[in-house]
Amino acid sequence: MTAIVHAVSSRRALIWSGDAAFFGAARDHLRRLEFDVTVCSDTPVMHARAELMIVDIDAIAPHWWKSIAAVRTYDKSIRVLLVGSRWPTYARFRAWQPYAYLQKPFSAEHLMRVLEYLKADE
After folding, report:
1. Closest by Cα among 46, 3, 40 to 20
2. Which domains does the chain have, with CATH numbers?
3. Residues contacting 30, CB < 8 A, separation 6+
4. What would the pLDDT profile of 41-98 be if each residue is shown by its tens digit?
5. What global pTM score does this model have?
6. Cis omega before residue 105 (within 30°)?
């Protein structure tokens, strides 16, 4: 009997977005960077020991905003990348403590450069 073993990355990323095109591109690139990726498009969940959390603030429900702050309170080591078409308020920035913010519109190449930078800055 032969067993097939799949390598599981110890690096985890969480994407909170309701935009299928965005989370698909981000998920695919993160997988190429050898991240295990969890996408939340309905109810936010926290993946155990995620290193990176990408939050599309335009494509999530407003009641998730408190969840972002709760995750940051729970684990300050998680790098949070916010993407959105408008700047969040100072109060939200303060609560979310993002590692980076990427303002829409942006190209797929720009997103990939930011993800590469976040990976390299470990």
Report:
1. 40
2. 12-116 (3.40.50.2300)
3. 13, 15, 37, 52, 115
4. 766 666 557 888 898 888 777 777 777 777 777 777 888 898 988 877 888 788 788 8
5. 0.79
6. yes
